[in-house]
Structure prediction request, 508 residues.
Amino acid sequence: MKQLDFIQYVARELSISEEESQELLRGFSVHLNNELNETDSVQLTGLGTLNKDIYGISLELDPSFAIEINYKYAGMQPIIVSDDFNVGIEEEEESEVEVDPDPEEEPEVDVEREPEKESEPEEERESVIDKEPDSEQEPEAVDNTEVEVDSEPEEETQSEVEVDPDPEEEPEVDVEREPEEEQESEPEGDVEREPEEEQESEPDLDDEAKARIAKRTASLRSPKKTKKSNLTPIYIGIGVVFIAAMIAGWQFYLKPILDEPAMLVGDSSTEPSNVTEAIDSDSISEEQQPSAALDNEKNGLEGEASGTMGMNEESSIISPENSASRINTDSVVSAPIMAKNVAEIPADQPRYGLMGEVDTRANDGYTLVLFSLSNRQSAMEKYELYRSAGYRSLLSPVNSSRFGLMWRVSIGQFSTVEQALEVAKELPKEIIEDYFITKI
Amino acid sequence: MDEHQIEKISALIKERLLVGESVLLEGIGTFSRIHEPQHFSRDEKGRTVAHPPKDTVQFSPEELGERE
Prediction:
């Protein structure tokens, strides 16, 4: 906006003449310059702070305004693509992941591995929250970790059952053992080895000493065996409890819902297909489930929709008031509300893709977000524009506690982020000028 | 110029920036909304991470403002 336009805008907004507006803005500029010259800093309420230093004048944005200006991207989180997907970014030095099989270096590996074990579930949780649970690389990484972790107990078991005669390996085993064992095992090895050597070299060993050694050895071995056998019932018990919980969960929670999905929304007359889809799909997050349920409230809410929006039968409009009351979490992205039922989709249409009809079964994938609009009608127009152009056009409500209800318009349903990126590269620039890939 | 007038003009600049426009103020400089598109980086595990787009506001001082 040029100076003259802004003068007119200020005049209109403040109901003053253009001359007055011009004078006001001139005074404003003089005030800013004076403040900057005197104090090197001037505060603009709600906007930020202008700071003057040797490099010139810079604006430090007000934190709340910084959030406000990014309202379009509310709810968008960084997502992990994969290790091997080339997107032309600079490679950073990779940290050492592989475990050196050399047993002499095992203590170092264990030290490195333990933090990984702790951090791995956190990463997994983050990636789930970040709406990308099916990154192909992650399961591999988890598998590797499992293998690595599994190897540890085996080593421990061996070291517990057999008294290692090699004195060099003793400290390594002791690192993993409990302190009590540590204390016991050290003298044990010494006691055992020395008499054995003596037995071979000196057959005239005192019977009393032999008996003492044998007794000591037996007493040291027996608690370990007992300890090992005690673990089995615990594992069995845990397994039984887990299986029982699974069965109970199926019987009392999932089965009744699957038998009668409408119970989720408390209205048996509504179409249950979307809810069933939401439950069946493993990758749809808990945040999305309530929104899927919201789809079934369309009957009572369509009346509130603007008359200018000519929607077809499967289209549903959710009023901001109702959806806001259901979803209280900040920036909750709901499932698309315009998806068609499976029966209405052409049989030859693939489950995922850019063009065609939106398939509810593909709502476990990713989409290219083109717009996030606070105005529902504008969002509907964009949605219709892409739908009539043949794209799988999706319209998803995003409820932000800060910005209220917004409408996210996106195109395409893709099984992976990589697939979405590949397609995005091929799209015309005017369509894909500014986009972001996110989970549906 | 009183504080109330400064607040009003600041609020009007903010409004224009929110709708995506730049605001030129003669004698001081231009407030522009800058858009950073989606970009990629590598995390500590070597995985590719896609970051969402981001908007910010940049102030470009006028030459006159800098001289003063």
Observations:
- The longest helix of chain A spans residues 207-259.
- Residues 90-202, 261-329 of chain A have pLDDT under 50 and may be disordered.
- The beta strands of chain A are 41-44, 48-53, 56-61, 79-80, 332-333, 366-373, 393-400, 404-414, 436-439.
